[in-house]
Amino acid sequence: MKLTPPQRRTVLAVLLGTGIAVTVFSGESPRPPPTVAAVERPVAREPIAETRAPPRIDVDKLARAPLPEGGQDVFAARSWQPPRRPPPVVEVVAAPPVAPPLPFEYVGQMDGREGHAAYLARDGDFIVARVGDVLGEYRVDAVAPDTVTFTYLPLGERQVLAAGAQ
Description:
Elements: H1 5-25, E1 105-112, E2 115-122, E3 125-129, E4 134-135, E5 138-143, E6 147-152, E7 157-162
Antiparallel strand pairs: 1-2, 2-3, 4-5, 5-6, 6-7
């Protein structure tokens, strides 16, 4: 038997009303919550358990097993950045050592019995220089009318002091 929607609503309303009526008029009243009487009981102390040492961890088991030949480490760190190229190697060629500038000032020269002599000034001192004289790290090689030629002895480099040069 099929019920139409209005009939179904009527049947549900009657069943609901009957359920409510049975609940209300059943005569059962709700029970009050049980009361707990405070009773002092002696507190039983549990014996303290012996502290045990923590279990030992076998660290050797944690080591990563070697990969079989031809195997790949699937957990290896990977980067999507292009690999860095090492900077180009630039060979630095050391410049050959150079003699320092001449510390002498040309004052003048004179022709004498012993040959040409150049008069030089160095740090406020006057020096008479002839061919073959060694003045500190310099050797006088030639005295010409307008130049004096020196050799810087540590490097064997020749230097020329012109007349009137400072």
